[in-house]
């Protein structure tokens, strides 16, 4: 097992440590990727593979489709167990974020920065050393600030634009490493001083940088591994925030209850066969409006079910439908696709 592996349970993944959130490991802070790039090769996003893990609850689908305003599919969160992997095997990747580090290897006369700490960005995961004293990760800590905008974009703090302006362009050349001196007398923001070692006179406290408005980069860090995509401009301002307060998105949790009497074939139909429910709804909306004869309606319903129903209990389902007034079935299906359906409707009706 990788010593940096981190165990995240399903509820945690939903409420706290999901895509875009930052988690602390022993040495550093890691960002959780989106599912499409987070899962390792044992998960592919082909429809045939995902079908096995699809949650086909028509009530949940109807409710969420209404909120999002387009057709959606719901996927279970794949766990080690579901993928037949050992509980300590790594199945989900993360990336180092923020990418800026502070080397604290100071106070040693032989070292290149004896007085001040150095803020630097490792060039890659393989080349992780302070550009001045060449000490590796053990003397460095991940910087505790990132910047974010109200739309959920997040990026590394642009120390360059925080310290320099158009009038005071940095004199650093492209061949020189982008580093900054970091002097912290305490953890208080006003006591942290950051200075460009090339322009020397330019120095700001972390408190000043906290109030500095940055142009938003429009990046969702969870959507890319190394090279950021070209994002369209966001137009909002980014501000510096502490990384441990960087839960930029809040989870909206909807609880559904399972009522045992609805585990009949009809209940299972409402619970698992969204496409069949959709087909019945179309029948009700378009064909039934001109028909009043109950037995004709039941016949048409039977035909739709014969065509659409994929479950094993077709005969049992027919027996049940035979004994329920057609209006009850219409009401049940209509309610499911009613624009005003909400969570309470689902509970009061005894539907899961
Ligand atoms: Zn160093
Ligand atoms: Zn400078
Ligand atoms: Zn933005």
Account of the 3D structure:
Helix 9 runs antiparallel to helix 10 (314-322). The chain has twelve helices and 15 strands. It has helices at 10-15, 35-38, 47-50, 58-68, 159-163, 206-210, 265-272, 274-287, 294-308, 314-322, 326-336, 343-348; strands at 22-24, 29-32, 54-55, 74-75, 94-96, 101-103, 117-120, 140-142, 145-148, 154-155, 180-184, 192-195, 203-205, 214-215, 237-242. The strands form four sheets. The chain has a six-stranded antiparallel sheet. Strands 10-9-15-14 form a four-stranded antiparallel sheet, with no helix packed on it. A three-stranded antiparallel sheet has the order 1-2-5, with no helix packed on it. With 352 residues, it is α+β, with helices and mostly antiparallel strands. It folds into three domains: 10-96, no CATH class; 101-245, no CATH class; 260-348. Bound molecules: zinc ion (3 copies).
Outline of this structure?
The protein has helices spanning 10-15, 35-38, 47-50, 58-68, 159-163, 206-210, 265-272, 274-287, 294-308, 314-322, 326-336, 343-348, and strands at residues 22-24, 29-32, 54-55, 74-75, 94-96, 101-103, 117-120, 140-142, 145-148, 154-155, 180-184, 192-195, 203-205, 214-215, 237-242. It has 352 residues and is of the alpha+beta class. The longest helix has 15 residues, at 294-308.
Protein traits:
disordered C terminus, 14% strand, binds zinc ion, 12 helices, 4-stranded antiparallel sheet, 6-stranded antiparallel sheet, 352 residues, single chain, alpha+beta, elongated
